């Protein structure tokens, strides 16, 4: 049966290791999670004991706190001692091809490769999870469980048997609505919708000789709504959102300039500093409104997650 092992240094992270162990056993079952690897029977070779445990282990959770490297009584680093239990656990995991998930505890940083033993291979470059002992503990452990689920599902189609007998495995499945999936797969179409609405609104304002204030309101409202929807549509990060906001501002301003030129017969390119300033202001308004909508969506999502965590 697949198992999950937890590696930790007692002086570094014993308390939170116990909390994580309790959450994992509640999720996967008591027989699926092993923590105290170093508690070996008398007279048994520690190296043989680790190899025997890891022979049926699929995932090793390496808890890294501020004192994970360890300090010996003579001032040297314990991790460079070949008989150090934590070092032997990591080396054995690499030797047996076990998936390792480093978990940074309470803001600890991933150790650089230069301070680790050579046998640790690329340990310093593994993508690490984070777990804090404060209010976010539950949320962080849920993310860790999700990562473990993915590894087990990839390596063990029968991973559902990890759950406690009579209890289903709690794998979070995000079910996307058809509309959600459609827009996420067609991001350019999503942006085209914003551009089209802006250009049509601009055209209607021009042919009806409406006050310029309506154009400013349109340039603020439509991008704001699409920015607000962006997080729901695809969960894009800040970098991607900035790029989309810039592209949206430039394309919409160019389109509105072309539309105004076709209606009035004026040159397409701005002819003086004042016209250039107006174009830049319109493009900036569109981009900033798009980002403002996205920022509000992020804030609302953070509040929702915090309330769900507290509940």
Description of the structure:
This protein is an alpha/beta fold. The chain has two domains: 160 residues, Toll/interleukin-1 receptor homology (TIR) domain (Rossmann fold, 3-Layer(aba) Sandwich); 133 residues, no CATH class. It is 56% helix and 8% strand. It has a five-stranded parallel sheet, sandwiched between helices. It is elongated. About 9% of the residues have low confidence.
The CATH superfamily of the largest domain turns out to be: Toll/interleukin-1 receptor homology (TIR) domain
Please write the string of helix (H) and strand (E) elements. Answer: EHEHEHEEHHHHHH
End-to-end separation in angstroms reads 34 Å
Number of helices: 9
Uncertain ranges: 157-185
CATH classification, class level of the largest domain: Alpha Beta
* Helix/sheet category: alpha/beta
Rg calc:
28 Å
**Count the strands?**
5
Q: What proportion strand?
A: 5-15%
Keyphrases for this structure?
five-stranded parallel β-sheet, 311 residues, 56% helix, 2 domains, single chain, alpha/beta
In brief:
The protein has helices spanning 10-28, 46-54, 85-95, 137-155, 178-185, 187-207, 212-234, 238-264, 273-310; strands at residues 3-7, 33-34, 57-64, 99-105, 129-131. With 311 residues, it is of the alpha/beta class. Helix 6 runs parallel beside helix 8 and helix 7 runs parallel beside helix 9.
